[in-house]
Amino acid sequence: MTQRRSVALGSFDGLHRGHRAVLDLALSFEKDGFEPCALVFDEHPLKVVGAGAPPELMTPQARDEMLENLGITVKKISFGRIADMSAEQFVNDILIGELNAGAVCCGYNYRFAKSAAADSRDLEELCREHGILCAVAERTDYNGAAISSTRIRNALAEGNIEDANAMLGREFSYKFTVVSGDRRGRLIGAPTINQHFPEGFIVPKFGVYASAVPIDGELHAAVTNIGRRPSFTCDDLRSETCITDFSGDLYGKSVEVKLLRYIRPERVFDSLDSLGDQIAADAQTAKEIFNRIEK
Does residue 240 have an active-site annotation? Predict the structure, then answer.
């Protein structure tokens, strides 16, 4: 017989603290013998309905990996399959028929069914009718307002990494392939790793950040520039990171960069020497921030 599950419902597009409250409820039903799982969409619902999806706070691969590390099975579904379902049909066909739900968990503002006509109270009533446990997570606040993916996107766009990380409950990070750069950093004693942001992924405010880079189980202090490098009149957008106390070849590897603090905006330098001096100063500032936060 298929094991009954505790099903977490939500967008889970950033796995922030509000999402974690729902996931923690799903995990709490393990004691009742239920397998925790999260029902996630293969595409953002807004993209499916043609409204345009907001920028991603994490890739679907990173989301799935984080869920699995939490002990939660990932169950994927196309939003198009359920977009026109009634609330009753969603519960009967998906939660019961496909997922064998014994418990269902959602956030206080969860909406579902055609035209988002049903809410968490409707879900509680339907679950009660079908003998399914239902738990609704209360609002999770930060600085007096509900945590949301929109607030986190806005904080990143403003370079307010402290608030973004506080709402996420972890450092905002991205993990992309290291590509070849123009190797100018080596000329000024500051070799860097270059990474491109994929289409649809959020790009934080242009500028210089204190960052941290995990390599082979060790976390390194780093300084990261996000933008178009105006000193070199470059058009391509990239993340360029100088890793402190590390020398090794990372080309072609997928490397995670965690942003800790915004240091300063991008600026134009009149020479490689002045740029090198500023990078050295930024690296020192970044290392001091790293030591305060990570040690």
Answer: yes
Of 75-79, 95-99, 179-183, 206-210, give the lowest mean pLDDT range: 179-183
Average pLDDT, the chain: 91
Q: What is the rounded distance in angstroms from the CA atom of residue 183 to the CA atom of residue 185?
A: 5
Q: Side-chain half-sphere of 8: how many Cα atoms within 13 Å? A: 30
Name the segment(s) of the chain with CATH classification 3.40.50.620: 5-142
Q: How far apart are CA 108 and CA 12, in angstroms?
A: 14
pLDDT tens per residue, range 128-155: 999 999 999 999 999 999 999 999 999 9
Average confidence (pLDDT) over 172-183: 87
What's the CATH code, domain 173-294? 2.40.30.30
- What is the per-residue DSSP string for 79-91? HHHHTT--HHHII
- Euclidean distance between CA atoms 54 and 200, whole angstroms: 8
Catalytic residue among 56, 68, 162, 240: 240
Cβ distance 105 to 8 under 8 Å?
yes
Q: Is pLDDT of 187 > 50? A: no
Distance CA 45, CA 51 (A): 9
Count the neighbouring beta carbons within 10 Å of the beta carbon of residue 216: 7
For tokens 């990380």, name the residue.
Answer: 165
At 215, which helix (H) or strand (E)?
A: strand 207-215
pTM value is 0.92
Q: Judge contact between 102 and 32, C-beta under 8 A.
A: yes
pLDDT attached to residue 236: 84
Q: Give the Cα separation of 174 and 257 in Å (integer).
A: 6
- Residue range 5-142 in CATH 3.40.50.620: yes
Q: Tell me, what's the pLDDT at 53? A: 84
Q: Where do you find CATH 2.40.30.30 in the chain?
A: 173-294
CA distance 114 to 126: 16
